[in-house]
Fold each of these.
Amino acid sequence: MASRNVYLANRLREVLLNGKWIANTNFKEQILSIHWEQAIQKVDHLNTIAVLTFHINYYLGGLLNVFNGGNLEIRDKYSFDLPEIKSETDWMNLVNAFLLNAEKFAEKVEEMPDEIFDQPFVDEKYGSYLRNIEGVIEHSYYHLGQISLLKKMITGSA
């Protein structure tokens, strides 16, 4: 069996970048297959695809900052504060930032020594590194499901 770091990195890549096993899709596939107007299209009172993409990227970036020796500076209350998307360029900037952070995040996890996974993440109140990384995977699948449904509702595809 693969070590925890490789296993977790593979799970992250699966949901974020290139997997098909659990959800038969991934974030990258979903967000690269729509244009900016679809990404910002509102469906009732639900979040848009762009907002959900920003939301996951916000957490990836914040945790990456900690992985790189920085402080935990992100706050839940800001995690949906997407700057306005007014063009395809704005959308692709968000998509590219997401894809870059997703790969960097998986790479950092892959490089982690096994003993770090059971250590507290920043502060004991935040749980362990393992719990936070697993949380990113679960959180990403949750919002991937929402994005998949929103895309079907917007495009009319089954």
Amino acid sequence: MAGTPRAGIIPVTPFQQNCTLIWSDETKIGAVVDPGGDLDRIEAAIRDQGITIEKILLTHGHIDHAGGADELRERLGVPIEGPHEADRYLLDSLPETGANYGIDGARAVIPDRWLAEGDAVSVGDLAFDILHAPGHSPGSVVFVSRDARFALVGDVVFKGSVGRTDLPGGNHDQLIRAIKEKVLPLGDDIAFIPGHGPTSTLGEERMTNPFLQE
């Protein structure tokens, strides 16, 4: 039987990125999603919740999401899963990107497992399906818990907006197509945590998000 997911958001880096802890209410086994930086704060939140971290998950390779992943993997002794391998070049260049944005200590990182469309990821007794949703970055992925009607969408879609596509590798048409053809069909009742800003539901965004109106 699938567990009941819980989530806690820890805004990190100057970009106020939603680093997210997800865990099972039953087992207290969880994952850290997108540890962009501020690792001491992330570890304090893990202790406060009394959870055991099993892995680190990455939605994509931008500095504010992945800049702290390699060091956190070292600190916790857990593997990294995601994103799609199309973001390898972003993960390789994290030290240079960090220097450009004034973020100290960013390390290049290669995950223990790349993710692709149709893959499955487990976190304790929680199960997530993987969607490859390029456009914000070439290797962006979405984690979907169909049982819990919950998703972690990175910077693919936000409350009232969508991911920016003016960065290298971005493609606006590709992003909108991925949202409309892959993400929205998951169902209006799916609640999601984006990479920045407040949570929402796919139904609310389908009806009100100006970027998704025909």
Amino acid sequence: MLNQKLKKSFEHLNSFVLSEKLKEKLEKFIVIAAIISFAVHLGIIGLIDFNLLDIGKYDGNLIISPISAIYTPFSIILIYEVYLLVFHLPKSITIYIGKQYEIITLILIRKIFYDLSNLEFSSSWFSIESDIQFTLDLVATIALFFLIFLFYKLNSKNKIEKQKINKKTKSHIKVKNVFATILVPVIVLLALFSFGNWFYETISNSNYSSTSIKTVNTIFFDDFFTVLILIDVLLLLFSFLQTEEFSRVIRNSGFVISTILIKLSFSADNIINTILIVVAVSFGVLILFIYNQYFKLNQKLNY
């Protein structure tokens, strides 16, 4: 009796957190929240410029230019992208991985908006480290956008996703549903802890300006990608129960490696950080391309 109640409660939770209705409501809420946060951030910058607000010792770059205010709504949009990642987990592993690539690209774009407010225009552009980093981030963003396009294009050609659903596939979908349902409250708690801890440390720190943008960029997402690695490894292990195909195992293993590389990028500095992100996404795209070719070859051999 107790098991039936727990099962029913879990099914209700699953149907709620992964419903189209919640997705649509959250989308509207995120848009409104992003607009309001942008207006508030701009308002704070305006009050500081007119000496109507005293911020004490804090002199962070997030409040020195109206351009840096774009950083805040982008952070709100990233929250929605995280939810979309979980939403697509039960439906398609490749789209789930694609959402990871979208999130890390948006984090990079958010960083570019921050750097725009701190550019040093000089005739010796490539002698200033921050300007070199900004140029590299711009190039990397274009490269990532193209790589994500290729990833989804390759996925659309992947006929194996449309195969007949057997018992093993149904079991694997159930497992992914369980992971997705658990992920939602875990992410909410992780976000509350990460932002709460950062806010406390920022307030209690007498030298506010010591908080670097690298530290701000890694809030929540460093831990979030650690959780994703654990989920990806578990999905990889469960995939052995669904299929013994060498190509499928290698593809899923490659996706795990790609996620680990993204996670490692948060620990790297400047140029290495950007290079690791591009390498991670490139690796995932290459893995999917080879997987598709392998699948086509197997189809020809089976005829």
Amino acid sequence: MKVEIVSYSNKYSKYFYELNYDWLNEFFYVEEYDEQVLRNCKSEIIDKGGYIFFALNNSQVVGTMALILKENGIYELNKMAVKKDLRGNGIGHQLIQYIIDYSIDKNFKSIILYSNTVLKNSIHLYKKFGFNEIDNPDAPYKRSDIKMELKLSNFRK
């Protein structure tokens, strides 16, 4: 399924909340930090130097993903969620490719992410895109048991 990926707009913020809330409840639970970020995505992500993107199909939001600024040039791939009945249609793949291309264009140093090894399909997808497991001493989520990084210098000419 081909999607159009667009940047954050207030009109999409409720979908950021709903898609991520549903995904978290399906696989884990919503932690206090999640709730804070989801309810206040503009102030917690955009206003702090991050980015939120939405995947649209026929003008309907079908997925979302964020890049949260961690430190100069390093962003966390965060809050990726695809509408449950549309998973497996390549939407997550397109979102990740978009984020990588966007980050390379912006000359970011790397993208990190926190995940859980029970999410085998997600981990496989991240590895397919070149993310490698790194030490995880600072996980902001109780559910996180793996941290991965994609060094963007590997993609520059």
